[in-house]
Amino acid sequence: MTSSATAAPGAANASVRPGRVLALVLLTAVGTTNFMDRQILSVLAEPIRQDLGLTDTQLGLLTGLAFAFFYAIMGVPAAMLADRTNRVRLVGLCCVVWSLFTGACAFAGSFLHLALARFGVGVGEAGGTAPSLSILADYYPPRMRPAIFGLFTANGPLGVFVGASFGGWAAAEYGWRTAFLLVAGVGAVAAALLLLLVREPARGGLDPVAAEHVKPQPLGATARVFISRPTLRWLVVSSALAAFVSTGMLAWIPAYLMRVQGMPLTEVAKWFGPAAGLCFGIGIAGGGALVNWASRRSLKAYAWIPGLSMLFTAPTLALALVAPDWQTALALLVVPMILSTIYVAPALALVQNLSPVAARATVTALLMLAFNIVGQGGGPLAIGLLSDLLAADGVADSLRVAMLGVTPVAVIAALCYLAQLRHVVGDAEAVVRDAA
């Protein structure tokens, strides 16, 4: 953020923070393995469904709620721990955990076995994003955070690209079980590098009030941050709905292209992986950079840029889903894949800048609770459940129709983002008053 809300005394000394580029690179690498582990199940959904005899509802549970419930629930205690202990060590150890459970997916023989492994992946990944953002917030000043968080959260698109391309290739060559093992090995290497090379930064030195003057807050006091700031209340709702759309799309596009449009798995690895990675990368990093630039003129950019992007996601996604072949569909999906992820970096930067220094990871985890229960958990499951219900009624291309069902949610998310326009400037000024 800019204006008074970001005029931190320590910001001028940001350049003297040693190792901040290395921390950004390695935290992004660890975050990439996080998204690889999520995306590989979506890419391999069709061969897994055929091998284990799963329904679309079961696939929706595996790609959504089975992961997201444990990820979201464990995210809050993991973040509270991050606000009280060494965050770098916590992220590294959690990366080891989620990598081990990703490898365990290779040995699944039924829906239950795979669901249990996904539970473990969710528990491990709960200690990844929120503590990582807290670390980066102590390496970079508030005025740089939208752009830096945009670069960091590009780990999602990079993970999608590597998970889809590398995972799809490995599955086509060696089978889907081997693909899980290879991706798990990448995560273990990333965790080792993080633990060896990144130092824990001092808390709050780049903010209006230093963290040594503030004790970690209990969960109830931290939750009241959302109640006291209207911007954060609207941000929770709008971001949860936006995540519902973007994660639902991401989970089901590979299966849609293969099942409805007849795209071979080898072509998914060849074309969808790079396309999705590039599009989500442009959306997330570009959204952060755009808000970083526009917010210098008005803090309302944190609301209207994500709002307009979600508004235009609805018609562009609908147009792509009615395409006549997979080549046309994939080309048209470029636009909604970019637009649907522009909200990510601004939302994460805004919640960091409006949060108490000593509770950053916990407040971020509360936002991500909504991200993941409603978005990661609800989006894929809702599409899968609707697809099964439509198929039972004899609807042709039920998966296509089910995916069209998320377009109204994008419009509602846009309206909730635009509702923040009245509050964001006042809440930013309140942060400075509270610090003073």
Average pLDDT, to the nearest integer?
83
Overall geometry comes to globular
CATH class: Mainly Alpha
Number of strands: 0
Gyration radius, rounded = 21 Å
Distance between the termini: 18 Å
User: Which stretches are low in confidence, meaning pLDDT under 50 for 5 or more residues running?
Assistant: 1-16
Q: How do you describe this structure in short?
A:
The chain is mainly alpha-helical and 436 residues long. The protein has helices at residues 20-43, 45-52, 56-82, 87-104, 111-125, 129-137, 145-152, 155-174, 176-197, 219-228, 230-259, 265-294, 301-321, 326-339, 344-353, 360-392, 398-404, 407-418, 424-435.
Please, could you describe this protein's structure?
The protein has one domain: MFS general substrate transporter like domains (Growth Hormone, Chain: A, Up-down Bundle). It is 76% helix and 0% strand. The chain has 19 helices and no strands. Helix 1 packs parallel to helix 4 (87-104). The longest helix has 33 residues, at 360-392. The relative contact order is 0.17.
